[in-house]
Design goal:
membrane; de novo design (two linked rop proteins); LemA-like_dom_sf
């Protein structure tokens, strides 16, 4: 075998490995996002039960319940983009947190067995979503690194791969908790 032919084979092998690595990272991101999506669907399925359970007690928070219902309906639409799903997740997380805080103001509701069960189930689902978000963000970081680093960035550009968005916490959750206020 001639030297140029060996070099050509080595270059072809490197290109195939880079291509396969990029495809594997893209598929990993899509696979993990599907897991996040499944867990989010589980949360969205719980929302009607939660709203139905608290509706009669929480007449003053009617707008909050309507907002959660509206966000759920929007999230359940087919063919929404991943970026839109990520944005909706942040809004639903915030709205559900507000409902759980509002429940504290209704002693009868707070003691209701159905509400306690829903709170427990929502807490479990939120933990699952949190774990899925971490896995997704790690896969997206690996993918984004691969499409931006040399030499895979050249092939990623040819394959029309673009940066993917990670899940980020909402601004309200970034604030420090005022412990003093919790005890008042």
């Amino acid at each position: 075998m001639s030297m140029p032919f060996i070099i050509l084979i080595i270059l072809a092998l490197i290109l195939v490995l880079m291509y396969n690595s990029l495809v594997a990272k893209k598929n990993q991101v899509e696979n993990i996002f599907a897991s996040v999506d499944t867990t989010l669907k589980k949360r969205y399925d719980l929302i009607p039960n939660l709203v139905a359970s608290v509706k009669e007690y929480m007449q003053h928070e009617k707008s909050l319940l309507e907002e959660v219902t509206k966000l759920r309906a929007e999230a359940m639409k087919p063919d929404i983009s991943d970026a839109h799903k990520i944005a909706l997740d942040a809004k639903v997380t915030s709205a559900l947190g507000s409902i759980m805080i509002a429940v504290e103001d209704y002693p009868e509701l707070k003691a209701n067995e159905n509400i306690m069960h829903l709170q427990h189930t929502l807490h479990e689902v939120e933990e699952q979503i949190s774990a899925a978000r971490r896995a997704y963000n790690q896969a997206v970081t690996d993918y984004n690194n691969a499409i931006e680093m040399v030499p895979t960035n050249f092939m990623a550009s040819l394959m029309n791969y673009r940066r993917k968005q990670v899940f980020e916490i909402v601004e309200s959750e970034r604030k420090n908790i005022d412990v003093k206020e919790l005890f008042n």
